[in-house]
Amino acid sequence: MSYQPPMLPLVFSIDQDGMFAVKIGGSVATPIGRFGIDGGLKEAGKHEMVIGLSRDGQLGEQRFLLKGRTSVAVCSDGPSITYVTAGAVRVTVRRAATTVRLVQANRVAQDCAGTPQAETVPGGGSGSRIVPQIQTPTRRLDPAAFATVEFRLGGGLYRMALADTPQKISLGMLGWTRSDLGGRDGMLYRYPGPTYGSHIIVGYTFTTDLLFFDSAGRLVHGFTGQPCMVGSPSCQQYDPGFPFSYVIEAPNGSLPILPLGTLLSF
User: Fold this and answer.
1) Nearest Cα to 258, choosing from 250, 266, 199?
2) pLDDT tens across 218-228, in order?
3) What is the pTM of this model?
4) Contact by Cβ (8 Å): 249, 210
């Protein structure tokens, strides 16, 4: 059986409402739908690719089904975060972006010309993504060095250790036991602005629930994270795929199950 790879480059335009459109061979491709961020990408057929596109602040994405597969790269005219796996590409762009380009992996320099801020990811058979570099934590911080912050979430009042400096954000609860929390419910990470990236549960002594919130305090994603050993090359990175300004880490089961959009309020 033979097939033709998708016509590349493809240029997706983005309107003021964050909607995407693309022209393929002179015709406009219709999205196959809008889906919630927790739904996962629809699995593509053996000779198909699914492209999922979203804009930061959106809790859903548009998906396009393309016939054919090939090794691809993604670039845009503004910063983006990108996942590429076999048969599926997901791109989240910031509000300043107006286009996303899907190009042949070996033609990034030619087909992404004019997008100097672009980030690219080679596609194909193995998963990859763009995230800020994470330094592996190496030492435990004194729990007494963390201030306590109070906030409301889902109708409850919580007290947590506050991580608001680069060192505290990097090390988190490494080496802590539940008793080190001193009656606090977990740790709240407060970033100086919207951030793309991941959290890792390295050196932790307990299974941890992670909740990611945007700059308005809305819940955008959650995970249950398993601890891994310091220095392990296989630590899971928990990445919501959206910019976040606050992250809660708490011992598994200590927080209620919350719907997306739940507000964090101080």
Assistant:
1) 250
2) 998 888 888 88
3) 0.53
4) yes
